[in-house]
Amino acid sequence: MRSRTASCCCGQLRIEVHGEPLGVGVCHCLACQQRTGSVFAALAAFAGPYAVTGAASEYVRTGDRGASFRFRFCPVCGSSVFHTEEGDEGAPVLVAVGAFADPSFPPPQDSVYDCRRHAWVQLPAEVTAFARDPT
């Protein structure tokens, strides 16, 4: 089974995941825009188990539908690396695609909160866009 390692910019915080992503998507919600400092977040979902090395700072926020998400980022360089949903032990871990530093990483299949997508951001035709979160 293939493994991949994602890390922060300075390399202090790492997560190793196994297998192919369950899904890859982009999120245009305003919280993701503020969290990443970009106009969208690119995320890949992986089933457990996974291994984390290094120290992480954490931030918990509540999404539009009431679920809470725990974001982990490097306390040294500030890079956002991964997050999980609170209270759902079986939920996949969501890893920032850019943290893999792999230009050959699979492209997104889905785009959520497309209602908040910047007009100049163009997505490939095969990406399924949802005005909000479909789940």
UniProtKB/TrEMBL annotation:
Transmembrane segments: none
Pfam families found in the cross-reference section: GFA
InterPro entries: CENP-V/GFA, Mss4-like_sf
Alphabetical UniProt keywords: Lyase, Metal-binding, Zinc
Chain ranges of the CENP-V/GFA domain: 4-114
Database matches in PROSITE patterns: CENP_V_GFA
Entry similarity comment: Belongs to the Gfa family.
Protein known as: GFA family protein
Organism, scientific name: Nannocystis bainbridge
